[in-house]
Each structure stands twice: as structure tokens, then as C-alpha cells.
Request: fold
Amino acid sequence: MIENIVKMENKWKKFWEEHPEFYRADEGEGEKKYVLVEFPYPSGSGLHVGHAFSFTGGDVYARYQRMKGGKVMFPMGWDAFGLPTENYAIKTKRKPQEVTKENTDMFRKQMKDLAFSFDWEREIDTTDPKYYKWTQWIFIKLFEKGLAYKEEMPINWCPSCKIGLANEEVVDNKCERCGAEVSKRNISQWVVKITDYADKLISGLEKTDFIDKVKQAQINWIGKSEGARVKFKVKRIDDYIEVFTTRPDTLFGASFMVVAPEHPFVGKLKERVGQAKWKEVEEYIKKARSKSDLERTDLSKDKTGVFSGLTAINPVNGSEIEIWISDFVLGSYGTGAIMSVPGHDQRDWDFAKKYGLDIYPVIFPKNLKEYTGDNEDVFADESFFYEVSKEKPYTEAVGVLRASEEWNGWEVPRDFGKVLDWIEEKGIGERASSYHIRDWIFSRQHYWGEPIPMVKCEKCGWVPVKESELPVVLPEVEAYEPTDDGKSPLSKIESFVKTTCPQCGGEAERETDTMPNWAGSDWYFLRYLDVDNDTVLASKESMKKWLPVDVYIGGDEHNTLHLLYSRFIYQFLHDIGAVPEETVEPYYRRLSHGVILGNDNQRMSKSKGNVIVPEVVADKYGVDAVRMYLMFMGPFDGTMAWNEKTLMGVKRFLDRWDKFMEIKQKNASPASNYNVKVIINKLISGVEKDLSGFKFNTVVAKMMEALNALSEEKEVAIDELKVFAQIMAPMAPYRAEEWWSRLRKEDDSISVHVSKWPEVDKKYLIEETVKLAVAVNGKVREVLEVDIDIAENESEVIKIAKMSAGVSKWLEGKEILKEIYVKGRMLNFVVRA
Ligand code: ANZ
Ligand code: ZN
Reply:
């Protein structure tokens, strides 16, 4: 038995520490496996159980692949820029650099305690200037390719703290620090054109093996809509309004237009309409300004609007329609203007009803009767449908076109392409797509982030810092609060701000905004491959060797933004030739790990007092038990509640295993017996299958099963005990190492973790079983599980059945008259009653 677990763990921790080659990524010949777990933000409260869960999954897989002979890359680092550290620094008047160092030291120690087999020689830290030099380099490349630009954008502004707030700091539209109502404030910000990659980000998914849920999340986030742009002439004025529509088939049904309050058309109204009208419009836009996009597009909210005073001409039939202004149309989507078809769109319908505008249905359901729900045969009388349209819009894009002149009788979706062709031929519009994804606001008015490496020169405009001058190091400041004009505290440091223009050498000023949190995590998986490189972000050779990431494990919450931003940056780097030509997508597989709730089934939180600290439970039960419990809790992607009783059960299993190993070692048999071979080979093969499919919970179940079965066997050979230790190694690395050291022979590996994974001997593999019902005089007394081959053999089946406990007592002393065997299903003994 292992007497003192803590002592044993410490012994092996030290041993592994002395042998970094065990987990070094570039050793060995085998097939490469790049196993990536999302690197954590090193917060002051230490590693939480969610981290431990995700990392254990990755670690078990990495250890298994390593033992299988794979060349495994399993690195770790710190995504260390971020607000909590900055806020903590503000509160405690300490340097974020110092705080970060403390936190990463704590995280590293906790990870080592939990026996994660990271290759620590590849550790990275996004706040290290040597690292963020390349984050800045990427930004400069984006700028050079026209993918980064400055634009006035609203930020969250707390009028009481007088600072700009990140979205995370705004809760229910209130400032998280002081509770004041947050408003918007326009400031000039860097924006990155991710929209240029929208199509590629969708099509690239085909090159990945993400599960559908993740692919769908990415696709939905990008939100591509296909349709047309159509131009409407403004009546009596030399101007057009272009709309984006996904339903050009409804063009004849457009009965008014709506433009967003931000639309340039609205700005020009002042000179085009009377003063009274303009006043009315102006008042409306003022009110609209305070609403968020979400509120504006909320279907359930009452729609408001104002007539602009002008009309437009519908290009398909020349009819004159009113132009309205309403905030339910967003300035930032499509063209910021729509044609309204109240007969077929709910929002348009609501709006038309409210303001008494016309409703013209033009798409008729094929089965009119079914749709209108009328019992009479009204199909012949289409005028009935006009009545129905006054009650509700018909929003399905399926049906026959009516009241549409040349298009009458066309059907959608069948003739949708014909509609688009018609529009293009007549020159009134063209095929077009629109994306819900917006360009990426890349500026933060905070201190603790990568300085954006740009310089503003009066003469030359925005100029990037020379590559040879990178990194632009974040200077130390006195105070970390953003300033009261919304700028980052860097703006107060004259020595930082004042510089010379990289282009003309004249006086110039540095950008004082820093990058968003996402910037450092966009490309970190590349840096691991070549951590010390000072001339490129990572060498081509190293990337060719390791990319793509074979498995990327992370949280559901990162299936959209982080995954999208990093795929975007990778695709961009691919376009500029900075990453290998042959790898077009960075991640091959993506797994999202599940969520662990407190023992009360609630999200863990300090206030609820249900937080589990991995260190604390590991001290109590040992690291192996905690790791194994985490893997045993449920499916890797499931939502599970913490249950200490189950943890205790896992701990008891490990203790039983210890005891078993001890007893069997003492009485080890020189040769292996058949049954033991069968059990062991079943274990190896089952565990292999589960581990390659990330089914960790069933792996644990299989170990428990094998222990039970083997405990019944009198004799087990040393070789088989060694195999059992190897099978346990990925999940219970400490105990497995201990037992390996006690069992290993001279020429065995010095560590179980670099030993070769045992091979399955197929001869002992009973592949498939069938369930046989055994009855006596028609009454089922036992269900036997037998090998499929044995089930073929009647006499063998009868022999086994007679010996089974459930049946034998019913046969005792009875004369068997007949044995009826239905192959593979049922055996019936007919006995004299
Ligand atoms: C006419 C029409 C008729 C429309 C119909 C829909 C149904 P998605 O699918 O989200 O891309 N739209 C376009 N730009 C808009 C904006 N800036 N703000 C609010 N709504 C806008 O939606 C595309 C549809 O949303 C477009 O197609 C347009 O209304 C509206 F029976 O045009 B549709
Ligand atoms: Zn200049």
C-alpha cells in the first residue's frame, strides 16, 4: 500500500521536474499530435475547478498519445493582459506586471501539483514584450494591408467615474464600479476589417472537423444573408436610396421605405424639407440615439418612426412610396435602408398597422385554403387572402407570385434566381450579400494591454512603428485609471506620447490606446512552436512540423469570438505568407469541455459558497483521485454537479487498486493465466477506444470493472500488473508511477509516462457477445452473456447454461426431457414436472 500519499506525490513531482525530457515536445519519431487547451487568464483567485477539468481532459489525452508513441505537443501559457489585473492594481496601487508575475507563479505551481504534463520549456506570456512584439507586428501587417482603420465609434462611458468601460464592465447598462447609468460616447478608434474575411471564415470550416454545434455557432455569428441591393430614386430630387433585401421577390409589394436615423439621407433632409418637418425629424433622431441595437431590433418592442416628407419611386412598377425614418432599421446593417413589404414581413407589418400604411400581399401560399384556415373553398377567390393579410403577414418565402406584373405565376423558392436575373438585366439592382458580423473594434482605453504600435504625424497621418523598433513597450505609469477624457493613462506620459514620425522624422505622437484581450490569444498557438524566435513570430519549419492543432479543447463561451478571431488572424497570416502554405485552417478539431456546477446544481460563485478549489480537495483526497473523479463525473462536454460522495468513491477505488497491486505483487504467478489475459486485453482495447474518442468517464468505469474481475483471479503475473499501471497512468499519474517503479525490471523505462503503451493481443479479445435467455419449462431463469462464437455451438451453450447459478437449481434432481435451442436467442430445458 501507499502509506503517505502526499509524500509519494512529492517524490514523483520532483522526479518529473528533474526529467523535462519526459514531456518535451520535440522528442521522438512518432506521428505528431498537437493537443491544445485554452490558456487561462491568471486571475488572483487561482486555478479553478473548471480549468482543472479542461486541463485534465487534455492531459489524459496527451499522456495517452505520448505512450502510444506519438510526438506530442502539449503546451501552456498565460493570457495575462486584462481588466481584473488592472482593476486590482488600481485598488492596491501595485504594478500589474508584479501582480501578473505572482498570479502566473501560483497557476504554474497548481498545474504542476495536478500533474499536467505540459512542456514547460514552451511557456508563453502574452504580457511579455518578447511575445507582444509579434502581436504588434500582426497589427502593423493588418494596417499595411488596409485591414485596420480609424473610425469614430461609440464606447461605453460612465459619467460618474468619467472613464470608458469595457463591455464586461457594463452590467444591465450600469457601471460595474459605481452603479451609474452608462451612456455612449463617440471616440476615434482602431477597427479591424474582419468582414473582409466573412466568406472565407465560413468556407474554411469545411477544412475542419469541428462538431456541428461549433460550426453552426461560427456560421451564425457571421450571419450571412443573400439577396439583392436595389436602388430607389427619390422623387423630384437627384438622389437614390439603396436597400438591401433578402426578399427581392416581394418588390411589387413594397409600399413604403424606411431609413435608419443614421442614414446620410436623413442628414441631407434639413435642406430638402420645410423647417417644421425637419424639427419633427430632428426630435425623433435625438430620442433614437440613446437606444442600443438590441433594443432597436427587438421584435416585441413598439415601433416608432417619422415620415421624412419625401417619397421614392419603386423601380419595378413606378409607384410612388413614402420614405420613413425609424430606428428599427439599423444604420450598420446592409445599406441602412429598407424597402418595406408589410404583406410579408412582421416588423414592416407592425409599422404599417401603426401608421396606417398600405399592405399589398404579393406572395400567395400554394394551398391558400390551408393557410387561411377557412373551411369554405375560398381558393378561387384570392381577394380573401387580401383580407387575411390585414390580420397577419405571410412571412414564408414559399408560394406563387401575384400582383407582380411580369412575374405573375412565378414561384419561390423555385424562381428566386429568375427574379435576381430580371433585376440585374433591368439594371435596377444586383445580387448582394450582407453579414451580421461587424468590423472588430480594436481599441481599448485601458492600460494593461499591448500598445497599438502606431504614430500620428501631422504631415503623414497614421504611420506604423518601424518593425525594427518593435516592441513598443508598455511604460510604467503612476496611476492606472483611464483619464477623464476617456483616454488610456498612457496619454499622460509625455515621454511615451512624444516621438518622431517613422516616415518623415518630424514631431509626432504615439497612439495611446491598447489592444483588446483577444489580440494576444489570436495567435498564441503559433508561438508555442517556436518560443524564442526573435526574427519571425514562429519559424516555418516548426509550424510545418506541428500545424494544424489536432485537438483544441476549450469552453463553449469561446466557440464564437475567440475561435473566430483566431481563425481570422490565421487566415490573414496565411494570405501574407507568414504561416505554411499547406495549412489553411489553424485548428483541425475543436472540443468544448463541459461545465461543473456546485454541489447545489448552481454555477459556482463565492457568494453562493459553493466554490470548489482543486487544491483543497486534492490535499484531502490526493491528486489522482481528483483527476480521476473529474473524468468520471460525466461526458466531457456535459454539465455536471460536484458530488463529494462520488469523489470519495473514486478515492476508495484507488485505495482498493493499491491494495490489489500489493497483494498480487506478493503472490505474483510466473506465467499468465487465460482469464487474466482476457480481462487485461479487454481493458486495453476498451480504454484505447474510449480515450481516442475523449470518452473519459467510461474509461474509469472500465478500470473499475477490470479491478473487480481481476480481484477474483487467484494469480496475476507481474507483466499484467505493469500493464494495469500503464493503463492507469494517464488518469492517475502519481500512483501509476509509484507502482511502475515497484514493478519495473531493469530495462523497462524509468517512468511509466514514457513507457510504451501495451499492445492488445487480439487472440484474447472476445469481441462480441450475445444475450441468451435460458428457461426451464418456458420460464426464463437466467440471461447469459456469451461470446458470439460460442453462441453458435449448441452443446457448448447447454454446458454453460447448466452450470449457471440461476438455472442449475431448477434442474437439480430433475429429468431433462428435451433441450430446445433457438440459436443466439434462447434455450429452453423441458423437464419432467
Ligand atoms: C424586403 C423584405 C420583404 C425583407 C420581406 C424581409 C422580408 P437578414 O435575414 O437579417 O439579413 N433589413 C435590411 N437591412 C436592414 C437594416 N439595416 N435594419 C433592419 N432591417 C434590415 O434580414 C434581411 C432583411 O431585413 C431585408 O430583407 C430587409 O427587409 C431587412 F418579406 O427586404 B427585407
Ligand atoms: Zn510624418
In short: Residues 644-666 form the longest helix (23 residues). The pocket of ANZ (ligand 1) is lined by residues 225, 244-247, 250, 260, 329-330, 333-334, 336, 338-339, 341, 344-345, 434 (CB under 6 Å).
